[in-house]
Write a structure and sequence with these properties.
Blueprint (H helix, E strand, L loop, with lengths): L3 H5 L5 E6 L4 H15 L4 E6 L5 H5 L7 E6 L2 E7 L4 H10 L5
Parallel strand pairs: 1-2
Antiparallel strand pairs: 1-3, 3-4
Length: 99
């Protein structure tokens, strides 16, 4: 299994979802829908940041969930807080990933 750093350095865009214990259920439903729709074009990685304090500082997390899209190690887009499926699809589109 690849590390988070390896995943965000890939050519394929990677959506990293930083979650915190207690707010995972709602985001999990959205992530499943995104995986079904974009799975071949966007890699999706879920990270429970509550178990690793370094993530908060390293990725400048101020709210959960936080969604960050990376491509080849570069942050393309960042959104935080509760989102709808339409919000996340718009984020993916603005990052340059066609639907």
């Amino acid at each position: 299994m690849k590390s988070l750093v390896e995943k965000i350095r890939e050519k394929m865009p990677t959506l990293v979802v930083f979650q915190h214990t207690g707010n995972q259920d709602a985001a999990d439903v959205l992530i499943k829908e995104l995986e079904d729709k974009y799975g071949e074009r966007v890699s999706i990685v879920r990270v429970d940041a509550s178990h690793n304090g370094q993530y908060k500082e390293e990725y400048k997390l101020t709210e959960y969930p936080t969604y960050i899209i990376y491509k080849e190690g570069q942050e393309l887009m960042r959104e935080s807080g509760k989102k709808t499926i339409a919000d996340l699809e718009d984020m993916i589109a603005r990052a340059g990933v066609a639907s």
